[in-house]
Design goal:
Layout lengths: L2 H7 L2 H10 L5 H16 L7 H5 L13 H6 L16 H13 L5 H6 L4 H24 L14 H13 L8 H17 L16
């Protein structure tokens, strides 16, 4: 799997193309793509002037605990509930989707196919609330006030490590302790020698990884 391909599909470029073609029954697909593109951008600002360079304010660093992006995600501070304008919040959007499917006169099996899984729903809400809470806390504690890059909250290094572990075990889908530790030694030697693995599902974040 390549995560970047999913990001390319769920992008404003694809939404704009669908909108331009004016195909019937695609309005909700377009809405779905735009909401998820915005969600990805809010959590993926990688460097300080990325928003300026790409002319995309959604990638700007976080500098204010009352940033309007928190309100759009669904976790606003009191008094800032309407910073997201006329759009419904992201959390309300995915919860509303679940409620609509729940009220459909179809079988339970079909309902499961028409909505996001409970794991995705739970993981998304947990991610949003944890991200907003962590950014706000760090901004409140910073002296003097600083900026927070959303991409700093990334599990790419962890995912990359276990990707290397999986690839090192060959055809074994259930490695034992000795196999795991053997690959761990191999990875440590590669890192010490400065050998960089170029193909992976995530981005390398340190030299020698």
């Amino acid at each position: 799997m390549k995560v970047k391909y999913a990001a390319h599909v769920l992008s404003n470029t694809v939404a704009n193309d669908l909108e331009f073609k004016k195909w019937p029954h695609t309005s909700e697909t377009i809405r779905f793509i735009r909401y998820h593109n915005k969600f990805f951008d809010f959590l993926n600002g990688a460097f300080r002037d990325q928003g300026t360079r790409t002319r995309n304010e959604n990638l700007e660093p976080y500098t204010d605990v009352n940033d309007k992006r928190f309100s759009w995600l669904g976790v606003p501070n009191p008094g800032h509930e309407n910073d997201h304008g006329n759009e419904i919040t992201y959390l309300d959007y995915i919860k509303g989707w679940k409620d609509q499917v729940k009220n459909m006169p179809i079988s339970a099996k079909l309902k499961e196919k028409k909505k996001l899984s409970w794991q995705v729903m739970h993981g998304t809400e947990t991610t949003i609330r944890a991200f907003a809470g962590a950014v706000r806390l760090m901004l409140q504690l910073a002296e003097p006030p600083q900026f927070i890059l959303a991409r700093a909250f990334s599990q790419d290094p962890l995912e990359q490590h276990f990707s290397l572990q999986r690839s090192g075990c060959g055809g074994s889908r259930n490695p034992n302790v000795n196999q795991f530790l053997g690959k761990q030694v191999s990875l440590a030697i590669q890192q010490d020698l400065g050998i960089k693995k170029r193909k992976a599902n995530v981005e390398a974040t340190h030299e020698g990884v």
